[in-house]
Amino acid sequence: MGKEEDYRALLSGLQKLDFRGPYTPSALTLTGSHAFPLAMNAKDQVLMAASRYGHGRIVVLGHEKCLEEFPDMVRNAVNWLKSSNSRSKVGINMSCNVVVKNLQSASIQAEVCAFRDELGVYVTDAYSVDPHTKDLVSFLKDGGGLLVVGQAWWWAKQNPEKNLLLEFPGNKVCNVAGIYFSEHYGELGTIPVPPQIPSSWLAVSTAIMEKEVDYRALLSGLQKLDFRGPYTPSALTLTGSHAFPLAMNAKGQVLMAASRYGHGRIVVLGHEKCLEEFPDMVRNAVNWLKSSNSRSKVGINMSCNVVVKNLQSASHQAEVCAFRDELGVYVTDAYSVGSYTRELVSFLKDGGGLLVVGQAWWWATQNQEKNLLVDFPGNKVCSVAGIYLSEHCGELGTIPVPPQIPSSWLAVSTGKNFKEDLETLLSGVSEFDTGDLVASQVLVHGPLSFPIGTTPDDRVFIAGAVYGQGRVIVLSHDRFLGCESMASFLINAIRWLDDGRSGLVGIGAHLDKAHKLLSNSKLTCQMTGFRKDLSVYVCTSYNDAQHNEILEFVAEGKGLLIGGHAWHWVRVNLGGNVMTEYPGNRLLNKMGLSILGNFLSSGLYKAPDIKQVSSESYHFRGLLRSIASNVLQGKSLTEQDERCLKKLSTECFQYLAMQPHECATYSSVVALLTSIVKEAGIPQVSPTNPIKSDKERFMLCVGAGLYKNSSDPEALLPCIIKEHPALPTVANASIYINVNIADEVQWISTGLYLSPGMKTQMTMPTQIVGKGWAIQIGCQTDDIGGADVLKRAPVVHELFPVEKERIQVWNLWGGLIYLVAPPNSREEGLKLVVQTAVRAPYFQSGKTGVQEWVSSIRSAPAPWAELEFENIIMTIQSEGIRGLERPDEVARLWDDIMRAVADLAAIPAKFPRKERFVADVQITAGFMHSGYPIMMLSQSGEELLNPEEIRKKGVWGQMHELGHNQQRDVWEFKPHTTECTCNLWALYVHDKVIKLDRTKAHEEMKPENRNKHIQEYVKGGRQLGKWTKWTALETFLQLQAKFGWSAFKKVFAAYHHMSNVPRDNQGKMNKYAETFSTVVNRNLAPFFKAWGWPIESAVEKKLSSLPEWSDHPMAQYA
């Protein structure tokens, strides 16, 4: 039985859990792979949970009152717990006797008694278990069932000096199954029971909590660590997701650390003297290390014999001996492991515990020609777990022991200068020719990662890293792997990755060109899937099926060459997080590299100048450290730093989306950015307070990124948004939707809005869960990050994939709530329930009455409003509609306009997807741009609602953009007609609907301007390269003047049913000339040739049988 079946059994028959009080439950913390939540409140706090341990089962309720409040749940729990064994009796601690009648009424053999082994289930509070915790753990492990109830916040108040996680009685039992009572109050309220395990809780919280528990166990009983000297420890460098600091000095240097690898555990102390200086810490460490296996013996290398008495005094079976497999823990210095590093790594991987002590700075001074990261003996073992002893001397002093894992912005640093590696990789390489391939950008964020190939603006497309004992190189397009123009670099790369082993290079499927090219490296290359016996593995980033095995492969000393882009993945995964969900990043993130969803222009890029690598190379972590020093310590930024700030803003936002909160390298960056935000504050961007400096931009992006990805966003909200007016809300708003969508994504309006930072729960219909649907908060979908001046934040909308029935949604900046339907969706009677939201002014033709609109709807409090007509939806700020008296008249005009748009395009009058206009304070380009939605500036949006003014002045710009949306590639000749044929719809609408003279609709339609375009084009030699925009439009205007709009409708209609249309411009222009000629029954070849079109002789011959249009307007220029 899986977790989901367990969950359904435990909540069988329940629709909700009503935590009414007046009691206050404890929030529970879950760790490990077996624990799962049963009841989760609106704040994502777990109030009930279940788990398995050994052969047994356990259920934990966050307050003893739950026994009375939830009798059905208790009966379900006991029945589920009984299933783990064949013993029928249920024992009940006296403190829980209120449950006896409930269980007996369900024919359960329940009795009040002390705990005894022969029971099938035991029900107890969390306070009375102390005398028999070991017995209860054994009972659980051997198949017994436990129901434990209680709260821990009161105990925490009464025992502030004690470690709640380890010393609260209930935790001494429940923690073996990954459930902890916490000191936090659980918020009361009615909790719906979803059909699946509630999963809005962050999975990462499990890993975070596991590390915190480990940390507290390792530092238990210690208030400070006094590094007095005269010894000098090494600073440690941490990478990956498992390593975490135990001691961090005032400079942010890590002097002690711990980690896990495989089934084992490791502790590293930055100097051997620590064994004598910190005896309590050493005992804690050995206790923790022993927990990873059942073997009791502790072996001690002769060099560390000073620790023997300390361990023996704590009843450890400790002996000085050479390393052997059957030990539970081995204590060794970092210098003596060189001859048996493989054995130690295998020991660790299989569950052994290692305590490694030593410093590396002296070795570095004596071995300057060697690579400390991979050649220093201790690093050959510790690095597989993400801990490296560095050449940097650790500063001495007294280090306080904080209650949580230490983190500091000062810990953000780069761990190595990769100049020598780059010399090898770039030998004989002066440039990177990417040809016509569109690559993604690579984010280089790890302390041991480095850029290799960059654009002139420092965007990376090739990068490398050291991971454990191995190496990795990533190229941001898979076809780079077989690119002849990169042959020299690729051969250098494969040799660098092989690192002198002369081993077998395995090349993954579909990389035949890479195999051919890399075979020139003089290494043996073979087409094969991943195998552990390879020296280097070459693959793409599109599959993560073996990412754990590959991580281990690299960590233990092998090489990885991986290629792939992510921009296509972003396009097809609506609302997906490329940092966490893109297959390649599940592997690469831990190595300090990530492939981003944006793309880079193809081209020829210079290779880095090795001489400038240390002084001028851009590195994410290095620049972060510089800006922190600037904000927090007043240090000046260099010109190079200033130049890269805009890029850093975007990269910070992307990096934060990775969300590995359990990772020390990530948490140090979060600590840095949080310190910056709290110290400097966030600029309050608006049209009246625009952001012009790159430093202000950085602060804005970082604030938004932190809020979106922080474990405590509410604490940041006041720093980011100063004015936060409270708007009246509605509760449990039901939205009913019918959907019949063609082959395009569609937004569905709800008429509801979320205020900035406001969170709400949405209950979704089961039939759309996991089917590509999404919830979108916000209509302003333009990313304006490329603008020099910002009038709003760059990204102000959020997408949430509908992967479960109950979703929590929010947007830092607030926004209208939309359901986003995938292509080809057909559903009827969908019902959505929004727990809390703000009503927005929302007019729907055919549903909203004018009186209703005027009297109430237009006054709805949300700052954004929508008007939905037959074929178009307009979204503008509410202040623009407050005085709108006759939305029906606006609807009438726009219904006519949109029918005319359809008429010219020769498509049905009812659009398969309604067009959308969104008016924003700032957009990505110009005053307007096409797309879905069509974006325009706020002032242009207000023009949409005044029929009288539209009839006087026209709406050329809006029609131009609607025309763009009607353009079709089969009759478009890019780039010539891109800004030309869209104007046909502007002309048609003004002719047929608005009935405004063309010369008043647009300045360029005046005769003098039209003639000027023709004459200049003819005078210039009728060069097709200059046949663009208004000049090109003249060709179509002349056709329209002669043959009327009906000809265009017939031409467009013909193309709807046409196949095998040429893809090149010359072929398409000839096809258009032939089609138009056929429609009007005239030979138009001479006319098009007069315009400089490359009409082929075969087409001329084909059209020669038709009457010629000999007196066409261009004949006069013959």
From TrEMBL:
Pfam families: M60-like_N, Peptidase_M60. GO terms for cellular component: plasma membrane. It comes from the Eukaryota. GO terms for biological process: positive regulation of protein targeting to membrane. Residues 745-1044 form the Peptidase M60 domain. One of its GO terms (molecular function) is transmembrane transporter binding. InterPro entries: Class_I_gatase-like, M60-like_N, Pep_M60_3, Peptidase_M60_dom, TCAF. PROSITE patterns: PEPTIDASE_M60 (PS51723). SMART domains: M60-like. Belongs to the TCAF family. PANTHER family: EXPERIMENTAL AUTOIMMUNE PROSTATITIS ANTIGEN 2-RELATED, SI:CH211-210B2.2-RELATED. This is Peptidase M60 domain-containing protein. It comes from Denticeps clupeoides.
